[in-house]
Every structure is written in C-alpha cells, then in structure tokens.
Fold each of these.
Amino acid sequence: MRTLIVSDIHSNIVALNAVFESAEEYDPVERVICLGDTMGYGPAPMECLEALWERHAVSIQGNHDAAAAGTMSTEHFNVYAAAAAEWTTAQLSGEATEYLAGLPDQLIDESFLLVHGSPKDPLWDYVFTYDHVIEAWARTERSDILVGHTHLQFSSEAGLGIERPGPDGLNIPLGDRRTLTNPGSVGQPRDGDPRAAYAIYDDESRMVKLYRAWYDISATQRAMADAGLPEPLISRLSLGK
Ligand code: ZN
C-alpha cells in the first residue's frame, strides 16, 4: 500500500493538486497522511481542506491550523503570518473551524508517530539538527517519526545524521535503524527549491521516498494578490525561501 505523506500545505491548492497528480502518476495512492499546517499564508484554505476530506486523509494539527480555528493566539506569529491567519479564519465554514479545532496534536499509526513540530512540543518545537532528532526519538517508543513545521525536506537515520535529498530524491529504508522524516512543505517550501515537496511510504518495500513536484507558482501568487494577502508571502514562493 502506498501512503502519500504531506505537510505544510498552507492553503496552496494548486501545489496540493500537483502533488496528488505527481504521486499518482504511475501507481495509485491508497492513503493520505497530513502532518498539519493545512491553513495559513495561501489563498485557498477551504479547497485544501475539502481535497483532504475527499481523500479521507489522516491529519494532525499544526500551529497555523490552531490559529485559523481560533484556539491559539497569533501573538507569536510575525505580522504577515498573523494577517494571513486572520484572513483565513474569515474564509472557514463552521464545519471547517470545528474540524481544525478538534484535530489531535499527535497520532500513532501502524508505522509512525505523527507530529507537526516534535514530541517535545507538538505544535511549536522545530526539528532542524541531528541533536533535535535524537531528542525526538528519546520521547517516543515508536521507531519512526514523521514531522513537518520547518518546511525543510530531509530525513534522518540513527547514526547517519541529517540526510537531504539529491536531484533524484532520497530513499529511506525502515526497519534497521530508527528514522525521522520531514516530507517538506507542499505549499511554501523554504529549502531553496520552490517545487512542492512530499513523501511516499510503501509498506511492502518498507521504504519512505522524498519527492518534489513542479506546480504553477504564478497561479497561486495571482490568487494571493487577488485575496489581498501580504506581498512578502507572495514573492517568497518563487524563491522557495
Ligand atoms: Zn508551516
């Protein structure tokens, strides 16, 4: 069974659709896992939620989801993120607000611990370094962890440090060593590569693979300008920063 793993979609429906298309180009995806921050920054919050609902995605809560649902204050957000959060809240249906507010902050499935930030602080802590990875492993019995939040696509295997994907992506085998993987951000990558990022887990080969997909960045940028979202959030999409 192939599981699509996405994170930090940030209301970018054009990027999300490109990821679905890319992930299913050769083989079907039977399951979707979302690691939070479906909301914030981008122009299409409801469309992104509906696309996940349609695919019965298993999702956890990110800090931007909590802010959009009004269960977390935006006082720790920068001015652009806070403005986008306020705009997002106004777009949501009652059902969407309730759904976002009720998302769990961590989940354990058959294969992974799912958490947006880290097991130390599910909504806010960032896993950037190998020391952070070791700390995350120490807080769970699960051998393999999936995180989002940093918008950086990488994986880590015990003893091997942080591994970043090359031009052909990256394959991470599960089983021998503990792993922690960040699929990267669908809707606002920050690792210098503007393409949408995602991962696929195949439970037969027990392999996690990291991928990128091109999407129509200018279409999302136009929709953001039409919605009156802050300019720095628009221009950064071209840079992947
Ligand atoms: Zn995010």
Amino acid sequence: MKIKSVELRTIELPLVRPFRTSFGTQNARQLLLMKISTYEGGEGWAECVAMSEPLYSPEYLAGAADVIERFLLPSVFQAGDIHAEEVAHILKPILGHQMAKATIETAILDAQLKMAGISFGSYLGSSKPKIDCGVSVGIAPTIDALVEEVSLYISQGYRRIKLKIEPGWDIEPVRVIRKMWPDMPLQVDANQAYSRNDIELLGKLDPFDLLLIEQPLDEHDVLGHALLAAKISTPICLDESITSLESARDALAIKATTVINIKPGRVGGYLESVRIHDLCVENNIAVWCGGMLETGIGRAANVALASLPGFTLPGDTSASSRFFQRDITNPFVMHDGQLTVPTEPGIGVEIDLDFIEEITSAKKIITAP
Ligand code: SMG
Ligand code: MG
C-alpha cells in the first residue's frame, strides 16, 4: 500500500457528565482523528488517544499532531510501499510518542484490512462474538452522588465497576459501594496518586475483595509497586507504567503487577497489544482492555482486541452513551452488559462524516511528497 494523503482533524465532543480523576476533571473530549488515503483507493481511520493536556501521559493532542506531521509521516512516506506490520519498525528511530505512532499504525491497518475484506477481530485473533463491559466511575462530589451514578450503571447492566480514587476519596467510597453491592466485581484506579509512604493506607482496601488496584504509584516507580504488592493482598494492575512488551515483561518479572491493563495507544498500537496479550497468556496473567474515552472509531478496535482469549476480565469498554450523547460512528449499544464485536472489514463501523464536520475545530491535509 502507498499512502497518498493523511487528513488530521481536531474534534471536540461534550461529555454527558464531568469525568474526574486524581489528575483533573474533564468536561469534554478533545481528540485527534486521522484518515489516510492510499494510491490503491483505500481509506483508513484512527483516533489518537492522547488527551488535550499531558496529565495522564506525557503525550498530548497538539504534541501528537506535531510529531505526526513533523517526524512520523515523513518516515512513513519515505518508506514507500508499506504494510501495517512494518510501521513500528519504521518509526522506531523516533523515540517515545506511542500514542501518535499507534494512530498511524491503526489507520494503515484499517485501510489494509478493508482492502483485504478482513475485520480487526479476525485479524487480531478474536475468540468470541461479544465482550463483557465494565465502566469507569469518576470521583464524585459526594458519596450520595457516587451511589446514584453507580446505581445507574448497574441498572444498565455493566458487569464490573471501577472507582477512581485519590487520597481522601478511597476507603470510604469503596466501603459504601462494596456494602451496597457485595457480589459486584469491583476495582479501583488511582492514576499514580499515592506514594510508597501510603502502603499502610492502601492495605486498608484489602478487606473489600477488590479485583485489583490500578496504578497506585508513579508510572516510573515500578519497584515501588513490587514492594507494595508484597505487603497487601489486593492484586496490583499496572496501567501507565506499561508502555511496551519489554516493560510488561520486566514488571511481571519483579512481580510489580499480577494483572495488566492493555491500552493500545499507550503501548504503540494493536500489534504490540497482541504481543503483550500473548506474553500474559503464556504466563497465566489476566489482561483487560483499558479505555481512553474513545469515540466509536477507537472503541471499535478496542472491542475487537478485547475479544481475544486472554482478556478474561471486563474492560473499560463501555457503551458510547457512557461518555457521549451522540457518537461519531454508529453507536456501541450494550445489551445484557455486553458489546458485539464488529465483523465488517477493518474497524467495521460507519463513520458519521456530517457530524464530524460539525464538531471539527481544525483540519489539515498532508500529502505525500
Ligand atoms: O474510556 O472508559 C473509558 C475511561 C476509562 O478510567 C478510564 N481511563 O487511567 O484507566 C485510566 C483512565 C485514563 C483516562 S482518564 C482521563
Ligand atoms: Mg488507569
């Protein structure tokens, strides 16, 4: 395949309710969309999961757009005839920027699979037609507001609840939710808000039978997670710290994590995600698919990934309506706590171009030299 042009646009979708984590509150999802066109007449879509500010990860929207245009696309254009399987290798000399790299690889893979008539799910190794859905619940203004929000998701059928926590919003919300729903699969996510000094405090979560605690410490403190894991009984699950197959292997080797959250953007794409999945299957480590408030474009590919056999825990693969009133594709609608894996070629969803145009704040077309 030879890439002819790449369209980059920034869009903004309002969230149905503010989403608060330990690093900030989001009221809207601003994101970068990519459409590639090939000389063979193919088209591929992807979204970049970087947030507008570098708070979850060092990458951010405008930075991703810049590195894509300035460094990544020139390398891709120079490579000429290209397959998705070669993209990571071609981009390797440019360090970091996994989310930006994942966007290019995914758009090329979408175009390639659409041309070949193969769905993302079949290509990646899907083993089931439907996946179980979990939902991520932000830090609420009050315990009552939290109970109300969790009740709504449970009534909608979600099969696992994840509570965002931070110092001062941890033991009490977990205690209340666990008491109301004693059998609900429940987990927490701190987004790095604690330190090694908090081991005793985090141990107070042990009585609540949580599936896991996600990324309690700094992303660079992998050893700290191993020390914590040795002292508490709640399983540790790394998110931000896992940026590649190698980092997953190392974290498992020192027992810093016993469950892994795979986010394709964070690890450089779906192909690296499958490699991490395979490593975990070999080592009997449960994996689940994380979420980055994706629109239908990113969600479609995530749902396909989450249908691989090693994804044994429900992911942050919620319905479109969890975040958006209106999605930019045909919406993902949950039935009985599950989403159906798309089977059409490529990411397998219909793109609502009219709506995308309406919410586009910037657009740029980069043509191959
Ligand atoms: O897409 O359902 C989703 C969001 C899930 O909590 C979620 N993601 O650390 O796992 C995480 C966060 C990262 C994004 S928070 C702005
Ligand atoms: Mg997380």
